Amino acid sequence: MLSVQGLQVSYGRAQVLFGVDLEAPAGSLVCLMGRNGVGKTTLLKAVMGVLPVRAGTVRFDGQDITRMKTHERVRLGLGYVPQGHETFPQLTVGENLQVAREAAPNARPGALDEALDLFPALRGLLRRRAGFLSGGQQQQLAIARALVTEPKMLLLDEPTEGIQPSIVLEIEAAIRSLHEQAGLAILLVEQYLELALRLADQFVILDAGEVVRAGDSEELHDESVRRLLAV
Ligand SMILES: Nc1ncnc2c1ncn2[C@@H]1O[C@H](COP(=O)(O)OP(=O)(O)O)[C@@H](O)[C@H]1O
Ligand SMILES: [Mg+2]
Q1: Among 27, 71, 110, 158, which residue's CB has the most CB atoms within a 10 Å radius?
Q2: 145 Cα to the center of ligand 2, angstroms
Q3: Cα 213 to chain center, whole Å?
Q4: Ligand 1 in reach of 44 Cβ (< 6 A)
């Protein structure tokens, strides 16, 4: 479904990704791991077209999307939940969701209801400004917002970072349900190894802008893999 080949990305003269390859088949849940600053967020941004690529290709659902605009990628079925969630704090929860619907005019109206079924607590907060929600609620809103566009694949950048434990469990359950029930392909950036072990089929570890290890999630138990993730 998603195939990244030889991806190189720079910020000005500082190169951050040095030829990254990554495959996420339809229906898979791939966990992208690695220490802080290795290039995980940069990779997701390049897949979404938020950052330009210097070399390499990104293919999604059989098409070369390397030069497409972000909104075109969303229409093709890529959903993105950025790190730190980036909801619109001045808008209400309902308005945040409405803005997302406008980004994907072809999505079914029922998609909004289904997104709210996943996070029922948001239903009672539709008229509250997003900026007044807890961090965990904002993260749930950010995920719901991505789902309103009816993606075939979801990119989640550290959805549990800094979130209170009870809501981490709710987010974990939501990711599992999207993967197992809805059959979405998911590329999850996650530093919490136990969560990755519970959710992922496959993993990819980045270090200094290169893939240093990739495999089936059982290998995450290996000491050699854990060393790559230790701070
Ligand atoms: N906007 C930016 N301008 C310049 N350098 C950046 C920018 N964003 C990230 N970087 C650098 O790129 C590298 C990778 O960052 P990032 O992709 O955010 O890593 P990760 O998500 O794995 O923590 C880091 O060295 C970071 O300092
Ligand atoms: Mg990051």
Answers
A1: 158
A2: 20
A3: 20
A4: no
